[in-house]
Amino acid sequence: MTLIKKKLAKSCVGIAGCGGLGSNCAMALARVGVGKLVIVDFDAVQESNLNRQYYFRDQLGQKKVAALRENIRRIDPGIRVEAHDLKLDAAGVTRVFAPCRVIVEAFDQAEMKRMLIETVLDEMPEKFVVAGSGLAGWGQNNALHTRRSGNLFICGDESREVSNALPPLAPRVGIVANLQANQVLEILLGEPTTHKKNK
């Protein structure tokens, strides 16, 4: 096992929301071998979720945390998945995500996003939050970015809100989810070192 794999195997990451961002980010983190994932959601898998969320038709009606836990285990049964079927409030955030170094914010609702970010930054200042903002529609790849403010990282274009004209679709949702996962890795492992080849 390489040093990177050992470090990731000892890491714990929280996922707040198991929809388009959360389910895809969790799968990316599972594939690189993050040792423990704490996932939280209170919703069930619906047919309308299948255009962007990491679930399958035979999982319709299942609780998202149960379905996502099963999908993670199909990739790597060694990953510890702590699944919480609940709607988070500030007290729940501090309790459930206590063992996590990084928490991924993956909520749909603005008030839930704000609650989680403010709770972590105010009550858990040693932890990092990786949030998503601006993922609706399609195209405009170059508008997607990551911005840091202290222990908060925001991934997306920070402007395009979901609407009937700009629905959440798999490509852009997946890109932002993977930006979040990649940012989590940078927090856990540090920036990668580059090696120039000798001429």
Structure explained in plain terms:
- The protein is 37% helix and 18% strand.
- It is of the alpha/beta class.
- It has one domain: NAD(P)-binding Rossmann-like Domain (Rossmann fold, 3-Layer(aba) Sandwich).
- The chain has a 7-stranded mixed beta sheet, with helices on both faces.
- A hairpin with a 2-residue loop joins strand 6 and strand 7.
- The longest helix is centred in the C-terminal third of the chain and has 20 residues.
Q: What attributes characterize this protein structure?
A:
7 strands, Rossmann fold, alpha/beta, 199 residues
Short structural description:
This protein is an alpha/beta fold and 199 residues long. The chain has six helices and seven strands, in the order H-E-H-E-H-E-H-E-H-E-E-E-H.
Question: What's the topology here?
Answer:
Elements: H1 3-9, E1 12-16, H2 20-32, E2 36-41, H3 64-75, E3 80-85, H4 90-96, E4 102-105, H5 110-123, E5 128-132, E6 145-149, E7 152-156, H6 170-189
Parallel strand pairs: 1-2, 1-4, 2-3, 4-5, 5-7
Antiparallel strand pairs: 6-7
Helix pairs in contact: 2-3, 2-6
